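G.,

No rush on this.
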Amino acid sequence: MGFVKCIKYVVFVVCIVSCKKQQTFTLVAEKEAVYLPLPQKVIAPLDNQMTKEKIALGKLLFFDPILSGEKNVACATCHHPKNGYTEFRDLSIGVNGKGFGADRKMVKMDSMLSFVKRNAHTILNTAFNGISETGKISIKKAPMFWDNRVESLETQALEPIKSLEEMRGFRIAEKAILDSIVLRLNSNKRYKELFKNVFDTKEIKATHLGKALATFERSLITPNSRFDQFLRGNDQVLSLSEKEGFKTFKRVGCANCHNGPMFSDYKLHTLGMVENEKLTSPDKGANNQFQFRTPTLRNLQFTAPYMHNGKFNSIKRVLEFYEEIAGKKVKNPNVAVKDLDTLINKVIITAKDINLIESFLNSLNDTDFDKEVPKSVPSKLPVGGDI
């Protein structure tokens, strides 16, 4: 397997000997950050192995509004294959919405059901969430969401169903929603047959639902971008500007956080990102410290707008933001300069670097993923919800 290394920090101890005494001092150079291609195969938990039948079941559930409180929203409503399993919106509109992607609108403007607080992550490659620079991954500990609040795809898959703004709505209480959804599935003859075939069970449970959804999500990988091909030894697949952009990407400090096969350290960082004015109160992120995890840089052509609240419509604007905060220009009045992540001090992006970095990031796109939408779902509801 090919790899690329970028200098980060390495400590050398140097001793100088004179006729009178020995002097010891430390030189701090940079450590090597390793870039590996995405794995071409997925590792699944021992208690949730992948089969074609389980993937197919998970896909039906993913597109079926039966999973939402008011039967009008599916997972695919905000994570649609036509939009790279995300959507072209800054903030999602869940149960109180109608329409597709950027054209989705609020149904009731005076409703307490407002926007979903954060930008929708793409489902592509979530099978590799938490993968380290060296390719190691703990699938049971894989971090999920912008604030890393839960671990594993099996757990993540059930969280949007419980969320008020996303899929639950007011009709069913949070503590009762999973039981209500499971009751619906057990009352559906087709789902009963499918779950029995996949899990060999007479009664569908919430754990079965989470495992089926997670298995479908785990099947959506894009391990053959031009950059992956480059790392595997095809030196001709990248243009000169893309290669130069990769060098620039590493040199200016992007690699401090955007490293490893997914171009993410999956850690939480405080950047002082400007707030989205659509929200009625500031999003304080993880630990109430305005911390958000480093997103993957793969398939950026599908994931605009960018940042945790979708405030930036272009990669250029994102890079300009990093240029600004490197100059101590904090746009969020709720975040003090002293609270910014210390790694920001190592970012040295200038205007002349931006085009080269953009060129390189284009090499991380891969359009080869499952884009087929089911013609129908077992509930007979509209496929993908009210879109």
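When you get to it, here's the other one too:
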Amino acid sequence: MFAIPRRAFVGAASAGALLVLAACGGQQAAETGEGGVSGDVVIDGSSTVEPLSSAAATLYRDVEPGVNVTVATSGTGGGFERFCAGETDISDASRPIADDEAAACAESGVEFTEIVIANDGLSVVVNPENDWLECVTTEQLATIWSPESEGTVMSWQDVDPSFPDEPLALYGAGTDSGTFDYFTEAINGEEGAIRTDYSPSEDDNLTVQGVAGSKGGIGFFGLSYAEENADAVKMVPVDNGEGCVTPSTETVQDGSYAPLGRPLYIYVNNAKYTENTGLQNFVDYYLENQATIAEEALFIPLTEEQQSTAQESLESLAGS
């Protein structure tokens, strides 16, 4: 059995407790709950960030039903393509925008504001029957996933002679995913550098199913999804040279889960924010309630320093 539903969101009863909107940059906090806000908000991008934005949309709908928020998932790269073409209002991203993507936005006249909205850790998962891997080093991960290992590192014994001669079965994020970009750079030292004989997918459910269905399976995706599927896959601590560290709220926030801890982002179209009252109100709500939304979506809230930076970004956006 696999946990196909990505998240369980709170209902209207608890949503009422989220009415803690501040008048960020003079925005529409006073209108919240009065039904005076309307409009459409279109979000696309990272499959990792999608549950966070979907949780925000679900909770916000109980506060301002006049605003229609839709959330799609085409991967971080695919999301930036739509965003820079002016097709979306917000782009969910599990990595910062790349130089060529920012150039595409500039060419299209799309100015934007980057806001860190939560934290996540990339988790390494194996089949629950894997009883030989209690901790994995970043060097071992590179041995498993590097382009040079294709055709040569084919079993767990090739990774470490003490491991059994169990065939490797590799699953992970597809090339349009920010998770793919982040993992390959963090582990293999170059964004996009990876062996091609693995099963890629933008759908984390397929990675869970693949790893759970093969004793030699190993994969990677966001920490929150690994926690949600703890009965199907086993999360493995990572050793970056300073001992084994299990991904958690504390280790991601304090930076000890390196190099696979990361911030998550939303990118907001400045002009659309100025023109669209519903978008203004939703973004203000999203940031003001980020801690509660992150916890509801099984992500890691911002630190105090990140909150301060995000608030400055929002104030800059409101003044744009």
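Residues 1-33 have pLDDT under 50 and may be disordered. The longest helix spans residues 304-318.

Enjoy the weekend,
O.
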